[in-house]
């Protein structure tokens, strides 16, 4: 596996651990539908939380969360609709981004952005 894939897997594992420590129940990881993949689907406070994990080795060019564009959002929303239908879920959905970046010491830091898609118009 390529190094960037290893880093991405490690970032997703850290995100899952972070969510679980904060009371989220993990329902699915790497849920695929057509061309879309949802990194993490969780549940907390009777909400379905769809989480996109973005990791970068540096923020010199772009913050990880800035890599989630309208096309990616449309794919995630489509996959979410399919997940809700397939598993007969009727709860409200929230879309979050978890950003993983190394700090100046090389330790990975997590930023959890709740309701991350609110600012975007997915149409």
From TrEMBL:
Gene Ontology MF terms: nucleic acid binding
Any Pfam family the entry gives: UPF0102
InterPro entries assigned to the protein according to its UniProt record, in alphabetical order: Restrct_endonuc-II-like, tRNA_endonuc-like_dom_sf, UPF0102_YraN-like
Coiled-coil region: none
Family classification: Belongs to the UPF0102 family.
HAMAP family listed in its UniProt record: UPF0102
Listed name of the protein: UPF0102 protein RM51_15650
Organism expressing this protein natively: Chryseobacterium taiwanense
């Amino acid at each position: 596996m390529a190094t960037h894939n290893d880093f991405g897997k490690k970032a997703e594992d850290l995100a899952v651990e972070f969510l679980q420590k904060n009371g989220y129940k993990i329902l699915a990881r790497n849920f695929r539908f057509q061309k879309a993949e949802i990194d993490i689907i969780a549940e907390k406070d009777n909400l379905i939380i769809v989480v996109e994990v973005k990791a970068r080795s540096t923020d010199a060019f772009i913050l990880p969360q800035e890599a989630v564009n309208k096309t990616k959002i449309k794919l995630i929303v489509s996959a979410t609709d399919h997940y809700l239908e397939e598993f007969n879920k009727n709860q409200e959905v929230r879309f979050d981004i978890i950003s993983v970046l190394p700090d100046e010491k090389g330790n990975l830091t997590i930023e959890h952005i709740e309701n991350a898609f609110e600012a975007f118009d997915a149409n």
